[in-house]
Design brief:
about 80 residues, alpha+beta, 4-stranded mixed beta sheet, 3 helices, Glutaredoxin
Length: about 80
């Protein structure tokens, strides 16, 4: 099995909540990183986006996706044998 997917976002963000709900509904074990409470997570998001703060970000294996369509996320989860 691949490394746990990571969801970078904020508690107040509806899109972040949507991804969290989707991953939970698919029984995917993932790590949620709140960029407003975790300085390292904030720096990782900036590094993935050329110094800009853009979220939600979902990282699955080598796939780094900013606010991906659910179908693209599902394909990445399948490719990484997580669903």
């Amino acid at each position: 099995m691949s490394e746990k997917p990571k969801l970078y976002g904020a508690d107040w963000c509806p899109k972040t909540s949507g991804f969290r709900n989707y991953l939970q509904s698919e029984w995917v074990d993932f790590e949620f990183l709140d960029i407003e409470k975790d300085d390292k997570a904030m720096e990782e998001v900036k590094a993935m986006n050329g110094g800009q703060v853009k979220f939600p970000m979902v990282v699955v294996g080598d796939d780094k996706m900013k606010n991906p369509p659910i179908e693209k996320l599902r394909e990445s989860l399948k490719r990484n044998k997580l669903v």
